[in-house]
Structure formats: C-alpha cells, structure tokens
Design a protein that fits this description.
It contains 18 helices and nine strands. By secondary structure, it is an alpha/beta fold.
C-alpha cells in the first residue's frame, strides 16, 4: 500500500521539529505542537509517516496513561519519557520527539461530568514546566544540574479547547488544525485503494460522493469488502474449526483472492456503513447514560422526551366517535383524556397523559429516583416498576411510589419491550 503524506502536514511537523533542535538567536521557540481536528482524519498516522520519512526516533505516551490511582504517577511518567527521549538523542545522535496521543482525552474537561483530578492538574503543570524549561527536567527525589537535550513535544487531540488554557497559549504551544482538503483526501484514498484496480475517475467520484465522511470511513470501507470472503471461509471450514485453522495451523495462514472492488460494490457497502452511523446517532444512548444534565432537566417544566417511532393516537371528541362507528377501537386503545382529568391532584396533567400514552402503547414503565447530590452527577437509581392495565391504575401506583421518595427527584421511563430501548423519559417530581 502506498501511503500519502500531506505537504501541509509534512511542512508543519518538519519545521517545528527542526526549529526545536536549532539554536536561533533571540527567538523563543514553542516546545509543543498541538495537532487537532475531527476524529478519524488520520492525525496520528500522518505523524508516523512524517517520522519515518525524516528517520527520527519517537517516544510515545497515550492519553490513557495520564490517569492513575496513585497521585503523581502520570506527571512522573511524562518527565521520565521526556528524559528518555533526550537520552536517545545523546546515545544515537538522531532527532527524537515525544509524542502524546489524545491528550484531550486524558487531560481535558468536556463537561460538568468530567472529573478534574490531582493527576490532571499535575500533568498540565508538568507540561507547562517542561515547555518553559525544556533543558532542566528533573525526576522527583533527584536533581541533576547538567542540562539535557531539548526535545520537541507533539500532541494530538480532537478539541484542544478542553485543555488548561495556560498550557495552550502561544508561547508554549503551536496549534495546527488538520482538515484534509480535496487534494489531500484524493491522495490518501488513492493510497488506500492502491492496487485494487480503481481508476482515478472512480477514486474522485468516491471521494466526492461522501465529502462529509472522515478518512477512516474509506479505510473501513476497504476492510468491509473482505468480510464476504472471510464469512465464506468460516462457512466452508465450520465454526468449530476456525480457531484451529487460523492459529498455529500447520497449513499456514489462510489466503484470499482479490475481492471485487468495482464501484457499485463499494457504494453498496458504503451505504451500509452510513446506515450504521445514522442508527448510532438516532439511538442517543450517550444522552441516557454518559452525558450530564440536559436542558430540559434544568428547566421548571416537566422533562418530557416524545416517542420517536409511533405517535400517540389522537384524542377524539365523544361526538366524533359516535358519528364514525366504522373505525374500530377498544377502550384500552383510547387515551381517554377526559377520564384522566382530576385523576391526580399531585401530578401534572401532561404527566398523566404521558403515562396513559405509555400504557396504551404497551410499554414497560420503570421509575428512577435520585437525591440532590447525585442529581448533579446524573447518577440515577432504579426504583419499583409500574404494572397496570389502565392509565388510572398506573397513575395511582405512581403516586404511591412518589410517597416513598418525598425529598428526591423522580422520573419515569418508558421501555419498548421489543427492542429493550428507552422511548420516553418524564420528570414527575422535583424536591421543593
């Protein structure tokens, strides 16, 4: 596979790395280069290609290493890896860089639910200290007066604004926003499909057909083409023999012929990938499980999330229902809003209607509660389920459950029994 390096990317990294190894009079050179941009655009991979082309050494740190149960370990790790890179320059006589991948994931703050730990503070402070004194980086418990080699630091991230603001100021960090233009995308995608008998016109058509997709979309698309052959391979040898045939087999690793890379075939798999992306966005599970409080939960009105699939049956006046006997309906299927009027002196009428809607659609109804402290962290606890054959019975059970949590936030959730997914959330009680 022929790999493509963007000229803009290559020039930016080459200038930053080289400038940090030069002694320029009366010039203050920022030590850190922050490469940021959308997910999946190949920031880290482009960096690796530049390092190979320049024939320089790299010492890596992952953003996942910047947190630890022992306070101070990540900051000590940063200093240790920096000094390790300086020692490589002294011993091997080659340029060396310190590469920190996904710094925002390890040291950034995304919302109110992200904890700001002692380690986060120490990592930010350590990087600031190294940027200000790049030749005097000490390990805890020891002090060496001899200056060490200055080592340029490269960091990648999706959103550098989540980092500590003094760390990313211009004197310490140069910012480079990586967004491949059309020529970059054509070069990278051509390298991905090199040797797959796609013409230049087909590569251009593929890139122009999906302009909003990131670079890793095209890499995943090529990988998906091989799924058909692997599925056929598994079917031919049998599931029970896959492990024996693939791992430590005397026959050697299995080989596959070149798949069908015609444009129509690629387009079909691309649409399947896009459908999966849309499905993830529509499920919105991150809102239910990971995010902090939504706007509706902070408002005074009840938190009502409408059902996305089947709408509630419209309310029909009694006169209209008697004048159209040809429309069959049962009492359980009708919302019976009139019957719910005054059903609860404690619950809002809109909440009562939502409960009735959940009962009519056959959804399971659960209850969640949380105190004021856990409410700020969006850490809900499960409560009793509501099982009733009618909306009035469900409202009565709900009122009995509310009496158990008089000083807590309470919400009900509707769950589709077929897909096991949440289809509605309604806040029914807020402590005064």
């Amino acid at each position: 596979m022929t790999y493509y390096i963007s000229p803009r990317f290559l020039n930016t990294l080459a200038v930053h790395i080289t400038k940090n190894f030069l002694d320029l009079p009366n010039v203050r050179v920022p030590l850190i280069l922050g490469i940021h941009g959308r997910k999946g655009e190949g920031k880290s991979f482009q960096c690796e290609l530049v390092f190979q082309k320049m024939k320089i050494n790299v010492v890596h740190i992952s953003g996942a290493e910047l947190e630890s149960p022992d306070a101070g370990d990540p900051a000590r790790l940063v200093r240790l890896r920096y000094r390790e890179a300086a020692e490589l320059v002294r011993v091997q006589g080659k340029m060396t860089v310190l590469m920190i991948n996904d710094l925002d994931a390890g040291a950034g703050r995304f919302d109110g639910g992200t904890q700001y730990t002692v380690n986060t503070q120490l990592v930010n402070g350590t990087l600031m200290n190294i940027a200000d004194n790049p030749t005097n980086v000490q390990l805890p418990g020891s002090y060496d007066e001899r200056p060490i080699q200055r080592i340029p630091i490269l960091v990648t991230g999706n959103d550098l604004s989540t980092l500590y603001a003094p760390l990313i100021r211009d004197g310490r960090m140069v910012k480079f926003y990586w967004e491949p233009d059309r020529s970059d995308r054509l070069g990278i995608v051509s390298g991905i499909f090199e040797g797959d008998r796609l013409s230049t016109a087909e590569i251009e058509k593929l890139v122009d057909l999906y302009p909003k997709q990131s670079i890793d979309f095209f890499s995943a698309l090529r990988s998906r083409i091989y799924d058909e052959q692997i599925q056929r391979f598994i079917h031919d040898i049998g599931l029970e023999r896959v492990s024996q045939r693939v791992v430590n087999s005397k026959e050697g690793p299995p080989t596959f012929p070149k798949p069908d890379f015609n444009f129509e075939h690629l387009q079909g798999h691309a649409q399947a990938l896009i459908m999966e992306q849309d499905r993830v966005r529509q499920m919105r599970l991150v809102r239910e499980y990971n995010q902090g409080l939504g706007r509706s939960q902070l408002a005074d009105e009840p938190d009502v999330s409408p059902l996305p699939s089947t709408p509630a049956p419209p309310s029909v006046p009694p006169s209209a229902s008697t004048s159209t006997p040809s429309t069959p309906s049962t009492a359980a299927e009708q919302p019976d809003h009139a019957g719910l009027n005054g059903a609860s002196a404690r619950l809002d009428p809109e909440v009562c209607e939502q409960v009735q809607r959940l009962v009519n659609q056959g959804c399971c109804i659960g209850l969640e509660h949380v105190d004021a402290r856990r409410f700020r962290m969006n850490s809900w606890q499960s409560g009793p389920s509501i099982t009733a054959g009618s909306g009035r019975e469900a409202i009565a059970q709900l009122e009995q459950s509310l009496a158990q949590y008089p000083k807590e936030y309470v919400r009900i959730i509707g769950i589709d029994p077929a897909s096991k997914t949440r289809v509605m959330e309604v806040m029914v009680q807020r402590p005064s």
